[in-house]
């Protein structure tokens, strides 16, 4: 499912194709923990849903270095 989110950092709207269902998104939005409802998502994918930050924004914000 393609999910569109607005970044809390840049205000830019981005989309990501995530392996989630409408039911999972609705359960999370109704208060269930994202890691329990969507256990197959990566940390970056969950962060995108929570904050709207792209992987690149996350890397810069969390000061992650690329693996060499």
Question: Any key phrases for this structure?
Answer:
single chain; two-stranded antiparallel ribbon; 2 strands; about 40% helix; globular
Describe the structure.
By secondary structure, the protein is an alpha+beta fold. Helix content is 41%, strand content 15%. The chain has four helices and two strands. The chain has a two-stranded antiparallel ribbon. A hairpin with a 6-residue loop joins β1 (2-6) and β2. It is globular.
Strand content: 5-15%
Number of strand elements: 2
- Which consecutive residue ranges, at least 5 long each, have pLDDT under 50? none
Count of alpha and pi helical runs = 4
The largest β sheet comes out as: 2 strands, antiparallel
Mean pLDDT: 93
- When the domains are counted, the total is 1
Main-sheet strand order equals: 1-2
Quote the distance from N terminus to C terminus.
31 Å
List the helices and strands and how they pair.
Layout: E1 2-6, E2 13-17, H1 22-29, H2 34-37, H3 43-51, H4 55-61
Antiparallel strand pairs: 1-2
Brief overview:
The chain is α+β, with helices and mostly antiparallel strands and 68 residues long. It has one domain (2-61).
């Amino acid at each position: 499912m393609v999910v569109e989110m607005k970044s809390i950092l840049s205000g830019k709207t981005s989309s990501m194709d995530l392996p989630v269902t409408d039911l999972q998104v609705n359960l999370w939005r109704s208060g269930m923990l994202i890691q329990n409802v969507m256990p197959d998502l990566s940390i970056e994918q969950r962060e995108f849903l929570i904050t709207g930050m792209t992987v690149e924004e996350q890397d810069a914000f969390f000061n992650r270095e690329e693996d060499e």
